[in-house]
Amino acid sequence: MTFRTPTGGSIDRTTLLRFTFNGVEYTGHPGDTLASALLAQGVHEIGGSVKLGRPRGVVAAGSEDPTSLVQVEAPFSEPMLLATTVELYDGLVARGLSGQGKLAAEPDPARYDAKHEHCDVLVVGAGPAGLVAALTAARSGARVVLVDEQNQAGGALLGVDEYLDDRPSAEWVADVVAELRSTPGVLVLERTTAFGMYQDGFVLALQKRTDHLGFAAPASVARQRVWRIRTKQTVLATGAHERPVVFADNDRPGIVLASSARTFLHRYGVLPGSRAVVFTTNDSAYCAAIDLAESGVDIAVVVDARPEAPARLAAECAARGIEVRAGRFVTGTDGTSRVEAVFVGDERIACDTLLVSGGWNPVVSLFSQARGKLRYDAELGAFVPGEELATVRVAGSATGELDLTSCARQGREAGAAAAQAAGFTPGGQVPLPASDSRCTARSGLVLWRVPGHDDTSFVDLQRDSTVADVLRATGAGLRSLEHIKRYTTIGTAHDQGKTSGMIAAGIVAEALGVELAEQRPTTFRPPYTSVSFAALAGRDRGSLHDPVRVTSIHPWHVEHGALFENVGQWKRPWYYPRPGEDLHAAVLRECAATRESVGMMDGSTLGKIDVQGRDAGKFLDMLYTNMMSTLKVGKIRYGVMCGVDGMVIDDGTVIRVGEERYLVTTTTGNAAKILDWMEEWLQTEWPHLDVHCTSVTEHWATIPLVGPRSRDVLAAVAPGLDVSNEAFEFMTWHDAEVAGVPARVCRISFSGELAYEINVTAWHGLAVWEALMAAGEPFGITPYGTETMHVLRAEKGYPIIGQETDATVTPQDLGMSWAVSKKKADFLGKRSFARAENNRTDRKQLVGLLPVDPSVLLPEGSQIVETDRLPEPPVRMLGHVTSSYPSAALGRTFALALVRSGHERIGETLYVPVDDSLVPVTVTESVLYDKEGARRDG
Question: What are 541-558's pLDDT values in tens digits?
């Protein structure tokens, strides 16, 4: 049986679309939604409820619908969409959901993007108020953006057959839209939902650009676009949502909001059923009853909860043979997969549709997001805007005004005020349309629920939350609507309580015996409607979200079989395995070669920040724990940075390039963080300092040349550079030509060996690397990766920030008191060093660990205990292993660890739980190799 009317609606009846729902093939027309096409086929049950498995249908006609969740399977699987907002297209495949969907297993092939737009006046909502507001502002010469979530303008007019100025309302809408589109500086965005409103006139809106095209969507066009709109003034003409009344078994399919039934009739040419009962608390539902009756639906009875029915509308119903019963209530329903009867008191009335109208809730979400205060309107039974904002104006039914001409007048006033506030003089006045509507909605009875059977009286149909749940919450002592929301989960589903939130607040107020005006409504937060993560990400996904960064020497590493690890966004060579070697074998070989002869690694990823200005030295003195302003040009100094709490956040070297210029190095993963840290202090606390910071990490290729034969290799490729100990001291730098390329050579060591860091422009990095490899061939030069670097530095007790530290470690804990200046009056973290917490004797301190069995490799992260037998829990942990490696130089395994009172425990035996055993370890100093530094000093 078809429920499609012979004529009417905004659908294209000349074109047939085929779609599949729950495995059954159906047909519809362009202009349909999935919901309207299903209702036209007599399909009311969409899915099941999330907890109870009760059948769920279509309650509303738009984004406020709480129940019609579907999963679109083709052309691409996407869950948690509303059948009422999915535009029908040929080949659509979907299935109903029971509150939960399933994410696609394959990547989304669609494109998403974002666009910035600036305007003088933003109008949200293209109903009568929004259209008049936008046209008024546009005629003043202001730049106007009009956004609306529907696929065509009109708002509430799309669901009625009313005339404006003695002509169909669609013609009036078309004329206004045509003028807007032809006016320079006006942007009209349909299928666009403003979902977030933020400070300083910033609004986020989601445009669904090709969702409605389905398989025909062009691959070159972004499926959805996030508009980032910056506006001087905003007019919110967001309308109002009809709300239901709660009664027993009010969740059956076939129970539809009265205005939505009218929308399905006039917009889609669909009848909600063949025999209907109407339950209302206001006049607006009478129009739905009359319109449906004139379209062939048998209206069994209009049940009006008010003591008296409106005489004029009751007479119109009587003229059509519709019975009206005033002062009566629907107390329950009957049926299986859909409603089959309703109960009015003890009377059972057979029907297949129940239309409900419990009043109207102004859509105040965006106004609330803009920090506007709300007030309770007792006559309307809803929260409305309670104050005027300097840059936000509200017009139409969003204010609680439900008369069309009055809404349009508010729109004209808001549009003119917004344009004037943006600096424009209002132009030609927009005439207000006269409506022939027979119904109003303001004169209603505020009714939240019909008492009885609280456990099947559903407040939030999507969450299966009932009146009993609300009363259970208040009975448990909860008073705040925010707390009750979380206790019952009402308003936390995809619809964010659009139809349930106000009812829940009313029931709570009744239960507590308080006035709703005294209750603060729950907070409206973005997004107003669901927004996919793909849309929010836009083009920032995959390599565009997290780019893979490689150095200029990367092709050589690939060619020579390096395995890579991710450090920040960089691909760094991890180790270079030869045939038959695993990680440990390769690293032992690389370590031995470097300690005994010469090795080389790609250090280009180290963060490099150019710091310039008259106050550069003073600035660095405040950032580092030691003095940098006293550093002489040509010298290098190691430095530690701390947060304001005195905890280490990074370390590196500072190279003084000139009197007012320094080059700061950071750890690879912290480069962006440290640049941000510098800028934060410069811009917020020390803006008076003459300092400029620039990231130059990518500008330089950096090659550490390490080992006792490194001097010989460097001398071979830099004949003009005196590399003797006397001429080239430790922690100094020289400019020279290396392999014919201008270079800055620094004598720095992160390995404890004689070492040089050769810096050339990234463009020449690969050529210099290959020249060094060729020059080092007679000495067996060996490339090494990050794992070998970790072993070499750990043997010397050099910490890695983020591995030996965890935001609770001070320089003193690391044994670096020598790096903390006692001369400086102040630096970041200095005051915190005096805190009692920072001076506890049992703080965790960096030490070395030597397993008694030299072949045992301790797992990193292992806990450390004091006794050789584990006591009953809780077990006191002394610390944990931060780094652990086998060492070619030591001929055994070793580890670094943070241990309570570690410096006092040197020589003690502690224990590390590994699997089912306790491994004994000896606590040592953190420096395990060449403690005197003779190898480093050459």
Answer: 888 888 899 999 999 999
